[in-house]
Amino acid sequence: MKDVTQLDEGWSLRHGQELLEATVPGCVHTDLLTAGVIPDPFTGLHETEVAWVGRRAWTYVRELGHDSAHERTDLVFDGLDTAAYLTLDGRPVGSTRNMHRRHRFEVTGRTGRLEVRFASAYDEAAAVRAITGERPNVYPEPSQYIRKMASSFGWDWGPTLVTAGIWRPVRLEHWSTARIAHVRPLVTVDEGTGRVEVRLDVERTAQGRGRTLRAEAQVAGARTEAVLTGDEAVLRLEVPDPRLWWPRGYGEQPLHDLHLTLSDEEGRPLDTWHRRIGFRTVELDRSADEHGTGFTLVVNGVRIFARGVNWIPDDAFPSRITPERYRTRLTQAAEANIDLVRVWGGGIYEDDAFYDACDELGLMVWQDFLFACSAYPEEQPLRGEVEAEARDNVVRLMPHPSLVLWNGNNENLWGFRDWGWEPALAGDSWGEGYYLGLLPRIVAELDPTRPYTAGSPWSGSWDHHPNDPAHGTHHSWEVWNRQDYAEYRASVPRFVAEFGWQAPPALATLRRALPGEELAPDSPGMLHHQKAEDGNGKLNRGIGRHFPILEGDFDCWHYLTQLVQARAVAAGIEHWRSHWPVCAGTIVWQLNDCWPVTSWAAIDSDGRPKPLHHELRRVYADRLLTLQPATDGLVLAAVNQAAEPWRTAVTLRRWGADGTLVRESVLDIAAEPRSVVRLPVPHDLLPDGPSAKEFLVADADVHGGAGVHVGAGADGLRAVHFPVADKDFAYPRPVYDVAVEPVTGQRDRVDVVVSARTLVRDLLLQTDRLGPAAVGDRGLLTLLPGEQVRIRVTGCATVDVEDVRAALYCVDTA
To answer: Is the entire prediction scored with pTM above 0.85?
Structure first.
């Protein structure tokens, strides 16, 4: 049987004449940080002080000894970042130039000092560029010349921290006769029968050539065997009436253990392989219709509106991301009613722990191949690395039922057409051959059970503009860059794969990351941790369209940026969801952060949810009530993504700003499963827009039933419509009472009870102001006069009413 020796201990990092203790998996930056050689690049302005680290060569060393009686010993690296030259006892072992693939080197009988020498990624990129020639890039960094996490070189939300190191586990594998080299389980469901076609590749030692081998596969009570005289076999299993894997919100996520054992002719086990699989079908409907060209995911025959978020590496040093951290962040996604996570192409193919969590949580995974915002040369030495990387990761990830889509790249087809690349390239290769040729061939060969799309955005062919909203996927960035968020309502794309709005992190995160700094929008640390071009200008213009900006009031500015972010994203999702099935999905940019930064994230780098996270939970819920402006008034849209019909009465109330109820009516709604009902709002309920003194509220019960005034209650759905900008509306001075009530038997929990005496618009309890670990169960809330809301706060010590009042913010233009 194969023996494995983990090599995660005993490493040192050579720093000048010193040998520093090294952590493997890890990287140079984290080792230098642990040794006190560099400051924390995530705090203050320290990022710039450590730029030298990425421009130097580095060497990891350890003694390697083993006493194996097996015929073969391999040195296996799951990840080397990036251009490395390996020696053992002074003799060459091999070299690498790709962070995104696994590497295996034979070291049978060899011992001594193992050295892994990493060249500077800048030097490696320069060497490749000298061979391939120049290619355009959105950022002035050479990320397209090296197969490395592109965002290491900086992004408009990330630091420039160019890493090097043994970033994934390393081990020795000792084996005889043969080992399992690759396993590809093709999982399908056909007329109620689950089918698993296990495609097996083996590698033999010299002594094992020509020997008969046996393979046995088992899953869900089914078992089969195969005899191998060569190096390949296909084992087919059938499982009658398997329980299907579903995205969250559509059913359960049953997983089945698939075991494979390779034995010699006497039945002695040589190697084993195990993964969990799920039975389900996935299709991508790209058929043409009267609206253009669709883009709808279909799982187990059910058409799905994808409620998605984009995922970036959760740490600029990805070796620090633990399985527990993956689980926490993805659980936060599930708690926000998200059902799809897009792994963005400027990051990494994540660890198996990421996909394991998605399998269990029912989060569909849209997986980009790793190309983003650059023209990529298609010549050697890159082309061979791209193919090897794609093959390695398709085989590694395909057992996961959560994986539903392969995507060729991020924004490169769009960039070629619109960003001045086409004339600059003058016929040079730029990646099209990867996206429209190599990658779809690899997916068709290795993983034909899943759909592939060439890019995001992509209209499906060059017959249409790559970012045409009527065809395929669309990225909506004109709004954030130049327009008010109301402009999201100007079109109905078939699938919105990127859109978003910025806001700073939570205040507690800023105070930790910028110690001692007097916070202001333009203070040195705030500006350094704002990487977007004219980011603060766009934030301020976004606020200024709706609110008067109070100069010098950082707390107010911080609240308004958070509020506008949540409102902007909600405006887009509510509009697009109300147009299902024409629009079949939204993927917010972005779920998470990789360091403390003003960004589009819903969860900051310390794991603290922004108000946007709570707002996603509302607008991504199975049932959503929204008021949508139309050419002749307002439309009430009831979105029912649940599997059951929704029969409910919606109470519509036209209010005066002073708390006077002007008119009230009830509309009966009957929404079938997975459907949307759109009804015009009666004209006598429309607010008197020119007066700027009236607004409309729609309330319903999420479970159905009579119209109720539940407002901010747990079972209540509320939509509000204000006909003018906040700065033009006649808001009263908000008045509300606050009480703090202990939760019986729970020392770290309190209930904050807010009772409104007037209209209170977008009330927000910023719980991190009560304590760094404090978390609330509510986000933004609009209360009518006489309404009361209870906010459960966990993770805080004793707080009093004044503490809470200081942490409460709401719209106040009076």
So the answer is: yes
